[in-house]
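Record 1 of the preview.
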Amino acid sequence: MDYQRNAFIIRRGSSSSTDRNEELATAAFERRLIVYLDEWSNRRTLEARVYGATQGERPVLIGFQLDAGYGVAPEQIWKVIDDLDRVLVQQETYEFCERTLPAQYTSQVLKFHAVSPDTDLDMSKHEEAGD
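->
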């Protein structure tokens, strides 16, 4: 089991390469499904929705999580993934489904590199963002 989890992780450093950046931007734009390992090393599936950069040019992938896995009831929530070494882009795409990325997530992104065509961005000022 541990071997499978370790094999899943993309080697550190690959997420800073041009190819990796292009792969993640394409995943968001082409509406690809993403599998990632969460902070407890559980596999999660999400719809890739936005690829961009936060303060300090740190790349992030934002998606809509579709499952919780391991027999846990589905938890459909937005997720920001900044540890891109734990992300695997799938070939499958998700069904066209319009969603709006909430302001608390759009406010974290300083540069948008790719946004899925069925995702709207709430660009209103988020209350916690400050002045």
